[in-house]
Amino acid sequence: MFTNRDLMTDHFLFLIKAIALFNANEHQEAMLRIGELAACPNVDHVACRIVEAYLRVQLGNMALDGARHNEAVEHFTAAVNASTFFYRLQIHLTYDEFVVLFGWDLKSLWYTANQKQCYALFRAGSYGAAFESYQSMMDKIDEDMKTGLRSWFTDL
């Protein structure tokens, strides 16, 4: 292989290939490859989870656009679960390749995934779960972000 057996470079290229598959509307195949890669030893699991979370948010958005609220909940919940691996990290600085190559907003990925999950739960009629999701976010964010989240939740 042209990477001279640099496992980190190989891993990154496999993630890019999965993203390319996703962008070519091969969503299931892309998610399968990310899952397989994440199960391998000696890989950057945070990078895998970032890609998984970002793509799950995209799938959730597509489901919301199609009024498939329960499907959206599943995708956003998967994104939230994946983001537990990195929500306290400054991923937008460490993994800036995704920002540069794909224009991803990694700085707000955790917040977006959680907010979208809450919204999808609300739209699906799961009001109790939506409130729990909101409370979970409130427990993890700083005071400045809480003000915006309170306003957003009130407008639902």
Would you give an account of this structure?
The chain is 76% helix and 0% strand. The protein is built from nine helices and no strands. The protein has helices at residues 7-23, 27-38, 45-65, 69-83, 91-94, 96-102, 109-123, 127-140, 143-155. The longest helix has 21 residues, at 45-65. The chain is globular, with a radius of gyration of 16 Å. The mean pLDDT is 91.
Features:
mainly alpha, globular, 156 residues, 9 helices
Unreliable segments of 5+ consecutive residues: none
State the major sheet: none
What spatial form do the alpha-carbon principal axes imply?
globular
Order of helices and strands: HHHHHHHHH
Question: With helices defined by DSSP (H or I, 4 residues minimum), what is the helix count?
Answer: 9
Beta-strand content: under 5%
Tally of strands: 0
